[in-house]
Fold these 4 entries.
Entry 1:
Amino acid sequence: MTIDSVRGATGSGLEPELVQLLTPEGERVAHPDYPLDLTGDELRGLYRDLVIVRRVDREAVALTRQGELGLWASLLGQEAAQIGSGRALGPHDMVFPTYREHGVAWCRDVEPIKLLGLFRGVDHGGWDPAEHGFHLYTIVIGSQTLHAAGYAMGIQRDGVLGTDRAGAAIAYFGDGATSQGDVNEAFVFASVFNAPVVFFCQNNQWAISEPLEKQTRIPLYKRAQGYGFPGVRVDGNDVLACLAVTRKALREARDGQGPTLIEAFTYRMGAHTTTDDPTRYRLKAEEESWKLKDPIERLKAYLVRGEIADTAFLDEVEDEAKRVAADLRKACLELPDPGPEALFQHVYADPHPLVGEERERFAAYLASFEGATGE
Amino acid sequence: MSELKRFKLPDVGEGLTEAEIVKWHVAAGDAVEINQTIVEIETAKAVVELPCPFEGTVAELLVEEGATVDVGVPIIAVDVGGGEAGGEPGGTAAENAEALKEDLVPVPEEPGMTAPEEPKRQPVLVGYGVKPGATKRRARKAAPPPRPQPADGGRPLAKPPVRKMAKDLGVDLSAITGTGPEGSITRDDVRAAQRPAATPAQAPAAQADEERIPVKGVRKATAAAMVASAFTAPHVTEFLQVDVTRTMETVRRLRELPEFAEVKVSPLLLVAKALLTAVARTPAANAAWDGDAIVVRHRVNLGIAAATERGLVVPNVKDAHALSLPELAAALHRLAETARSGRASPADLTGGTITITNVGVFGVDAGTPILTPGEAAILAFGQVRDMPWVHEGELAVRRVTTLALSFDHRVMDGAEGSAVLRDVGAMLEDPIRMLAWN
């Protein structure tokens, strides 16, 4: 489906405005509200990010198919939305991701192997959120938007907005999450408290098997108006536009101008997760039409045509991506299994008598199997 | 030095227990790389391709195509050569799980000596819910003794949905002793109260009420093709009622001709000829969608859907457009015979360009046929029956049939689809037109 079938979009006779700085053909276009001037190094850096996160993602899918991971939510097709917004982040910003933000994690220097622990079932998220400014993956749909709104209100209360130490919160979520009550509450709180939070919705058109028209009758970004803050739709497959739009929203948030809803219009090229089969509910033709809007191909075309990158650079990135994937595979297979007592370790920061008692009981239960050979 | 590694069927879907090997992409002796697709498997959730976790040479495929294997069973052995020693440290998650299982589960040593079978715990498929009766957990502690129900006429304890269920089933709650928390009445209690005492003996009989037919062979291929077609090609179906009295007359006349003495002449022959003629006038009907192009084929391989004992097959008459009417009749006759006897060759069954399905033989008027994958149109031909019909300005009893044409809307628009259907209808109404348009 496309947004054209949504009443609000066709009723006005106008296509929803989509901020785009790089066309699917790789032509650079200007936008009055979102000027963006990047150096060759920065442009090449974005390309490298896109290629590596796609390769990492592919490796994780393969590892799942080989029984090494229990599950994986592929980001295929959404690389630009994640890298563009991820590279707009500053050191004091705090990210509240879903379980698909592998590209944003990459931008926050979370090593790819750290993402795998959760999906291999050996830990609950292997990184320090404070160190990376990147919260743990949230599996529950939409609840992280509330965390982000609350965190943003905390920043506000630190009294740092408008200074060099100002940060903003950014919540990532999908089109399906917009139907959750949590997201509505987060919008309300962020709005009335003017909290420094950016709501970054990756509208990938499908909430598992539910198409966008089951979530909304107007373009999602227009919902922001009802809450009283700006909303903008950006071409989610255009890394430059995602960067520029997110930069502006974050800057405004840090300056105390309140929240923004960004709808990154993109497409989930793969399955919802490795346990999903999209051929059961969507048409191949739709996937084919989005292939033409591939985020990596358009940047590649732009770099090559503008002589910003040569074949040697592209090959080098390809090789690096391969190395990162091989290292990831090796590290994944080497991830140690946690002992049974690990279950009790992170319930409370400090020792807790009840948890301690439960740990001992569990240990005794396990010990009762010693020497047992079955009934 | 050669070292064999075996890849065990992983659980690729959060709680699957088994999968069917659909297709091997490699054979013994093939070199394989890490992440190269080696096999397609079909689970309860999806068909997925499995990438190879090793680099080396395929030593042996351990499971045949079509077999259903349990998760954890090795499916392929790969000779990883002498390059790296040691294998993966720690083993794979699957291997560890297997090792754990071996530690805990006693393995019967002789076939005669079987361990008492515990009810197997069925994992729950995420998003698919719990199978009724799938979880048979051992109770952690003894259930609390059921509390006697209030004898003073107080309401027995039961949640509202259970009350509703009891009401629907006509079960008196006050006559039940609850086994739930606080002695409350559960759904199971209500069900147990509803059943007469002989329930256990009846259970197998209830099973006999239904039969599970494994989906394989033609049924499976048909299902796959129909789903693929219905989900890829946007179908449009148009209908037309036609007075075929003259066609039936023509069929009778043809049968008397010496040229048709050896072959069977049926209305299908004229429907086929009419369709071939219509296709010549609207070539888009004999086309295929190929992603970035529409392939219009100049030769017509006319498929005829045939119900056989093995299931639905669609053999086709090659170059049907070039055949004379007696040749076409002979070809259709031969095709039906071969298909019905189950001897249709792969060549007969592939390469079709357009299809006729004769649903009339089943005694129905019409259907909305699903395209044969790779084709742009399919014509359904309903039963011919006597109907009141306005003929030459007067009500008359005429021989009437219904035609239904489904076409791929990516390839053809309503104008072209309608043209084909209208042409076929016109020719069946007045077969002389076939001469005019041929």
Entry 2:
Amino acid sequence: MHEQKTPLIRLAKRGVMSPGRMWAIRGASFIVAILIGAILFLCLGHNPLEAYGTIVTGSLGKATAIRQTVKLAVPLLGTALALAPCFRMRYWNIGAEGQITAGAIAASYFALFWANRLSGPVLIPVMAVAGALFGGICALIPAFFKARWGTNETLFTLMMNYIVIGIVRWLQGGPWEGKPGSQIIPTFAKSAMLPKVFGIHIGWIIVLVLTVLMFIYMKYTKHGFEISVIGNSENTARYAGMNVGRIIMRTVFISGAICGLVGFVIVSGANGTLYDSAAGGVGFTAITVCWLAQLNPFAMVGISCLLGVLDKGADTLQTRMAVPASISDIITGIFLFCMLGCEFFINYRIILRGHKEAAEK
Amino acid sequence: MNAVILLIYNAVLNGTPLLFGTVGEVLTQKSGNMNLGVEGMMYMGGAVGLGAAFYYEKMAGAAASGPVAVILALIFAFLAGAVGALIYSFLTISLRANQNVTGLALAIFGTGAGQFIGEYMRTREGGYVAISNALKTAFQSSPFPKALQSVPVVGQLLFSYNIFVYIGFIIAIVMAVFFMRTRKGLNLRAVGESPATADAAGINITRYKYLATVIGGGISAIGGMVYIMTIAGCVWNHEGLAGEGWLAVALVIFCLWNPLNAIWGSTLFGALMILYMRLHLPIPDQLYKILPYIVTAIVLVVVSLRKKRENEPPASLGLAYFREDR
């Protein structure tokens, strides 16, 4: 039997890293992502500088463009905030799309059928509450089964998406249809629309307030503590006497309720009506926002704006340089891959053969 | 009688993309990797597979042969999915990133990439990417002689499907044999159940995980190509795959990680998807169409209710393996 050499590369867990170095690594991975994106543009035969330039000017160049970018970022931020407690708890809620839509349905119901009975200052809060309630209930169904029997929540929440969106399609073509045969739900009355501040519906104020609230909720409340204990170890939580099932259902309900509120903001602020793609993929993109921000609400503000820029910029890219707008999804994916990969360098260190063990310590 | 045969026939056809997606994901999950990016890989497979057939025909012109186009589409779809799965594997196996989030990232990246490739081809080729009818027949008609197909009942039920149905069945059966009857299959299951034990027994964990995930991803991606080339009629449309990849992940649980169960499971789901066209009930079509998703949700609940030892997922599913953590 021959003697075994030490392997060329070995891994060891790292202790705690200083926040400065941690963010330096994350910053580096961000730059790597931009470089990979640049290579992608080169392969497509475009000048990467020009392409990135178009994205930035297209999304931030004019006041109207900025407004549209913010409009895109608002639901993203709101939904990412909603998902944060779920993810902290390691409950993989990927049904935000459906919960947003459920909230949108409930809000639309009041906007369509109660607008002439309630005045604006009453109607809008009613819509908001209805949206939140409905979104919460939609999220609660899978959470109940998860808490009770450990049913796989990833797929259950996902199936709820298709179910809720199917219901909107039915409403669109049936009971709520405007002109017969149009497949379109009529636009809301003026009193059911959110007021505007700086030319953008007040949804942006709502989500900024939510950001602060969510930060406090996760960091300084008993609920927030319980959530992170369950996320780290369900058994520990049980030993400590927490009612795990109840906490799961409560947290997921809150998460769904915020998604529902976002749904209300979308129909009442941005669209003024309900259609099947009202959520428009926000529920999925928000997952990436949430994760890129490391579940930190304030970081989510920056990242949702970044993705808003990317999204709006990609539209401009499509019109000006004939690059399909789905490029924004690809670049988002690249960002996410790089960010996920860089966590490795934060948690582990690589020891090359021949190097002293103690070098890092 | 005829209606029943027609229903089964269409169920099998519509279930085939799901069969590929599911069987590929079973292989992946047996190694302990929960790759939620099936939808993304299927998109990539769909777009690249269509592209392969389209550009092959463009280059070969009138001399283009059907079987070659089918083989090229298969290979390129497989490669597209394998590339996606390779990114996933590198991040989760080598860099030990969270499997759930990486899978979701792959789903976003893959749907974006698939959509992008499809759109890009469309704008470059003047608004329409479609292959000729001669090639379409190669993708959509049965490889068996007419005489066999026209045997009453049996002919339609057994011999009249397109080639991919048979390939899918063969892959599923081969995989079941591989898991239960070969040494390598046993090793792979050991890796998924308890990587530390497998490691101690001298099995190369990293290699098994990489191979299973990459090959599994490739097989799943073929499902996307099959969807585009048979059900969606060989053109790229905005609807894309309509959530087939996610259904495939659910089906993996439904069929309890057994490739043989995937055969009838995918057929059942194929039936649910087309039932609204075949069996008229007094409910609106749009609500009828959500039936497969409701059934999936119910299935998830039922599976979680009856916990049996042989029905459990691979024990280390979703967990990264780090040797020094033992």
Entry 3:
Amino acid sequence: MNKSVIFGVLTVAGLAAGTASAATLDDVKARGKLNCGVTTGLAGFASPDANGNWEGFDVDVCRAVATAVFGDPNAVDFTPLTSATRFSALASGEVDLLSRITTWTFSRDVDLKFEFAGIAFYDGQGFLVPKELGVSSAKDLDGATVCIQTGTTTELNLADYFRTNKMEYEPVPIETNAEGQQQYLAGACDVYTTDSSALAATRATFENPDEHVVLPEIISKEPLGPLVRHGDNQWGDIVRWTLNAMITAEELGVTSANVGELAGGTDNPEINRLLGTDGNLGEQLGLSADWAKNIISSVGNYGESFARNVGSETPIGIARGLNGLWTEGGLQYSPPFR
Amino acid sequence: MSNLSYVRTDMLPEQAPPAGQSGIALWLRTNLFSGWVNSVVTVVVLVLLYKVLADILPWFWNGIWVGDSLTECRAIRDERGLESAACFSVIRERWSQLLFGFYPKHLYWRAILALVLLFVAISPILFDRVPRKLFMFTAVYPFLLVFLIWGGSIWGPLMAMAGFGVGYLAYKVIATQNALLGLIAAFILPVIWWIFIAGPLAGAIHSVVPIGWEAVESKFISGFMISVIIGVSGIALSLPLGIVLALGRQSDMFIVRVMCIGFIEFVRGVPLITLLFVAQLLLNYFLPKGTNFDIIVRVMIMVTLFSAAYMAETIRGGLAALPRGQYEAGDSLGLNYWQAQQLIIMPQALKISIPSIVGIFIGLFKDTTLVAFISISDILAFTNLIRANTAWNGIYWELFIFVAFVFWICCFSMSRYSMYLERKLQTDHH
């Protein structure tokens, strides 16, 4: 095979993709629908109900962007993407936005030429153990057998963590989260390790969740967020400020219940700017003045979406923790709307 | 004394054979306990069978069909005091989603109609008692299928169909002048028609005479439906392509032979999943952005090419099994190459190959689940999507059993049909 020909074709295709993606917003508006890539099913983050309507935390980000553009949370088509196909689907323009539990890393941002619009969810790798093991800290796990998904960053994190703490472990390789649950329940391993959000979802499915605990140690940083292609800053801004609007709304106490009332005008200038009663922030984004108001009234603010999909009231029951607002000891912090 | 006789004149009543020589006792002894080794094996197997079934059968029979979540299922199970019970409520709630995927609910009837018409279309191929005129419908069916499943304007499929008319006309007109030129035109002109003319023309006619109905995008065609669509088209296209490749591999023409061998050996040397990744990922990069080359069509092409290569080798096996005399018989009757193939060689070669051909069909059909890896939500991918719902998180066996059952029905029917065909075509009267 003549390699230069292949690379030539790749370059041409890459150039074509680069020029064509200059105005995603116009493409989306012309189409009348947002194409959003989500995961192929993860409890709390993306799943279809019996009627095929998608719901979940990642899905809410898609719906919020669709609402910002069209004022309609249903003007979005969801494409379930596997981890192998997600980046090519975004790069080729099959989807306009990828909201698929994707960790923000240097190489994905720089080398793969994507732009992360922010951090929607601070995740990290944790450990799930049966209570009867009598373990209260990950430091007590010396010599344990650990169920671990092969070929993932979690596998490397685990090796690093045990080496730095001078402990031994015996890995039990698994392929999928589903297999991990089964192996762990069957007693093939003492410990199951993966992202703590997935651990919480897994534990929630057990017949007796109280017999299992998630250990307090989080051994890795997994900042998950929506991402778009490099090179279309306007579109990137829309996604970034959609997420920021949801976070700011929670901080300012704007909820789906009171947004209609607050949009009539308040004494707080930032609320007025956010909801479009004051200033022209929407216009600067190329959107309508009430874009953020629409997001809050149909999708809700960050806290509402969190509570509805993964919060402590749901079977998954993830505490806010790092995902709390900065005013409440968490890390969610939006730049000001000004 | 004359009536005294040493020969019995009336028959003794028939007696049952000794207890150990008939009925169930004989069957048991000959089949299960015909020696101490076999007896031990029988007992061991029976014990194992009991152990397995004692767990599975109650679980299955106690299956719970009510409730809207796994939690409710577990509550009902405890309420009924059952040790273990399957939670089939997930099937009751989601069966239509598993079969039709994201296909719009109010259009299910179109998919069902397409399936029913599929059986009508293939009936003249499967059974020779069906009127031959149905072949006309078979020829139209692929376009009808596209119109039923994808919807949209009726002029698209009609214009695609017209491409064949263009080819036929070109051949009729030009072949009177020059046979070779006519053949070439019959290939080239339809392709030009499909690529450059059919689309705009269909659009133009549609703007004047809009006949059509709700269109469905390819990304909503999922669930078991996608397996049937890809499987059936793969089966229908790979057999003729396989025959051509098998003949090409045996051809005396050097270029044809080398190309066929090259293709077959390349495709057989590559796993199907690799070809699917090429269809999904590489073509995405190679094709200019905005090219509307449907992902389902891409997958169909790859699946067809893949199974055609295997098909070619199977048919080559059938060809090789024919005695040399059959070829010579064709020659001595004065038949040319194609006549001999059509009348003598292929009917026999295909008959020999039926079991392996059907084996490839079944394999192809099951391989369609691999599309889950390239983000097409087939029935297997849907088990994961359903499990991602908090209501059904943690449910495994019930979904997998349903999927296995659906596939088993299809594959078992294919296998039974092939046995029927073998019996029907049996001409050696031993």
Entry 4:
Amino acid sequence: MTVVTDPARPVAVPEASGTAPPRRKRGTFGFNSLSPTEKVVRYLLLVFVLLITIGPFLWQLSTSLKGSGEDIYTRIPRLLPSQPTLSHYGEVADTIPVWDYMRNSLQVAVLVVGGNIIGSSLAGFALSRLEFRFRRIVLGLFLATLVLPGEVTIISQYVTVRELGLANTLFGVALPGMIGALNVLLMYNAFRSLPVEVDQAAVVDGANVWQRFIHIGLPSVRGTLSVVAIFAFIGAWDDFLWPLIVLTDPDKYTLTVGLQYLSGTFSNDPRLIAAGTMIAFIPIVIVFATLQRFFFKGVEEGAVKG
Amino acid sequence: MRSRRLTGVAALAVAALTLAGCGLGSSDDTSSGSKPTVDANAQVTGEVSFQTWALKPKFTTYVEGVIKAFEAKYPGTKVTWLDQPGDGYDKKVLSQASAGQLPDVVNLPPDFALPLAKQSMLLDVGAADPKIAEEYVEGGVQAYQYQGQTGTFGYPWYLNTDIDYWNATKFAAVGLDAKNPPKTFDELLAAAKVMHDKSGGKEYMMSRLPGIGDLTNAGVKVLSDDGKTFTFNTPEAEALLDKYAAAYKAGYLPRDILTQQYLGNSKLFTQNKVAWTTGGGNALGDFVKDNPSLKGKVVPSPALDTPPLYVQGLSVSAKTKNQAAAIALARFVTNAENQAAFAKIVNIFPSTKASATDPYFSKSDGTPESDAKVLAFESLAKAKVLQPPVISGATNDFINQQISLAISGKVTSKQALDAAVAKANQLLAS
């Protein structure tokens, strides 16, 4: 894959206005020049993927804006509300204490994000940079836990949390998610991609483990750290079943559980539920927007060297 | 209706209750815990907890009113009310049970109550209160008596059933009369053919695949008398599936029904894709709320054949520290007066015999919603529990998958039913 981009080669001929573009022979296109048909096909595919990924989201958004007098379910989904209204958003805030739920969710999310950033980077650093007995076994154990689906362990997890006296507390909700095995592996990979020579040079200079971790390891894995932060945040924010099981006091409900109050037993208004979902979505956008600069760096980071 | 939310409950039930049995939770000795230690006339006082399912915030005022009345009637009592969100209730209840924290009085539909009753976690309220059989309708009480278990494990609370809803516009378009809709499955098939042929294959009548309830309706014996084996792989069941398969092949059923989503048929109906759906007495309001353009176009009629009976109930935890107050509360919430008040806020029906004569349920005020309510109320007299509660979520899913395969023609009806019975028996035994 080394010949893909050659900066010396003219990549695309800028089209001079007024003159017809020079006719190119079929079949001589390189990687960077596209035939018009191929371009159309690529864009069509992109649009198609775009539609299936954000389609449901747009539908939910448009449902939340639709007035009470208009149809929600139509044969061909209609995205533009004909009687747009923001009243459902106000109604959500009137029906449930949405700000309290959001504060609870935030507390859990902050604990989980903090736990993962500190715990996973420590564990990942230890697994990739330190020599100790059973290192491989520990790594294997981390991998092994990934195989277990959460539903299998949820009851025993609840019993454990309850025995610790943490039932019905937000800390009890956050605790099991505070170090994710997958995050440890991500950090392990990120630290591994840093050349060992750098570390060895630091050892020669007399740096101890903590100094190497803080001054050499961490600054080079900021990207992966933000990936871990975003995934941990989304995971904590979106979790439904676990907070439902741990919490009994409605004042302590997280947003996902609290939003359930919008859909009652006998009848519910999809417009109201959609508005609630949209409200729950806002913080995720904010977190992603602040961290996205690092995020894309982090996604590449693990793959470049290794 | 709600009980279809039970997906995956069987596996969890086993896991949860095994754990509870291990004594990881601070559970007491559970042997013979289901027998009451006080009689119905014991002194009622002290604290008692009460758990409902998804009644907040719409019915907060009603429930708080009932609780206040209870505390006033029995001075010295204090009720703590918990309301659980709709989703994941089965798992919540199981985790409460395995941790030994089941509230004193719990709202449980019969199929959620069964795994708890098997583990002696629910009180036999029939033994504590012999008047249950006299005061509540038979179908409601029977729903809490299980094959293989002795006792009645809950006070029936509110009831509901399904009636049929038809799209009058679609009927008129193909020359059918919505005022005189199909009354049996065979008439429905005939109407589906008309709908298909006259609209050039664009419109559909039928909107769902058969389930266990339909097999019961076709005269199939689903479960053996001792409740230990399933017996629905009979020639009658095969004939019914064959009819559906033929209808599917002829294009009378929309393609997207094979996935069998919960409430999928009413969604298709709201989307204007099909002309028939089933729904509770309150479903009409939902159709019109979701799609206001349906207003005035929906005609209700009684369900085909025997209508299904859906029961909700209040069970009493076997480990309650305050049996007298718990039993009194369950009985108080489900008494005729409180149920009638509840039924007037929302279209559900009381499970008490005394309510049968209430003119509110038997007289329509002329609106379609009210017509639907009266129809549903009349159907209740004939309604039966069509799906035995031993069919857990996992079993039901597997049966439905097999039925889907048979209807789409991938396997024969006999193969599908045999496979479903084998798997269901295996799940029942485990």
